[in-house]
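Human: Here is a favour to ask of a fellow structure person. Comparing notes only helps if you start from a blank page. Give me a protein, with the fold worked out from its sequence. Please set it down just below, with no commentary around it:

Assistant:
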Amino acid sequence: MNFETALQRGTLVRRYKRFLSDAILANGEQITAHVANPGAMLGLAEPGTEIWLAHCPKPSRKLAWSWELARVDGGLVGINTMHPNAIVAEALAEDRVAPLAGYVEIRREVPYGTNSRIDLLLTSPDRPKCYVEVKNVHLKRGEAACFPDAVTARGTKHLGELIEVAKAGERAVMLFLVQREDCRYFAPAEDIDPTYAEALRRAVAGGVEVYCYDCRLTLEGIRLNQPLPLHLSGDA
């Protein structure tokens, strides 16, 4: 997935009201940017952080700037939670996700469960449907990529719906996409949301497949990279 416009460097002044941030551009101009991330963004939103922003002035947008990347510990981290579905869909179309390769059609945002939409539905005439829920990950603890970074009742609900998909004989997949490349494995953030961590283990026992991939990030775009091992006991 490539960014639509060239990113511009800035210095974070503050993030506030979840979806807003103030930053100072390299030319000294202070701007307000949209933050497409409802999470806590632990370790990513400290004042003074180097960030990279997209300038997309459109009549339909309230803000012309969007915060896309942060540089933390020398590496880039993607903070935009609107991108993971597109990143994974692109990789699936190129058969770069080995456990999910070979499907003929990829559909996005298909209704299922109880008032939910599955992120990606993979279909082929010769195999069961494959329901793929994608979760964005950017929290790092030690060498672990951790999810969630805030309590997520919605995420727990999705796991329950995936269990029902598996019970019906279809493939149910939870795919964690880590928008950074400095983690060595995945673990649930048990102390932040123990209910979700337990629901994830219950989902695995109920037939839900769980995978985690990190990303290769540049100032030009973000691309799914390599699988990470799972430590689902929560011992991050």
Q: What stands out?
A: The CA atoms of residues 81 and 133 lie 13 Å apart. Helices lie at 84-93, 153-167, 194-205.
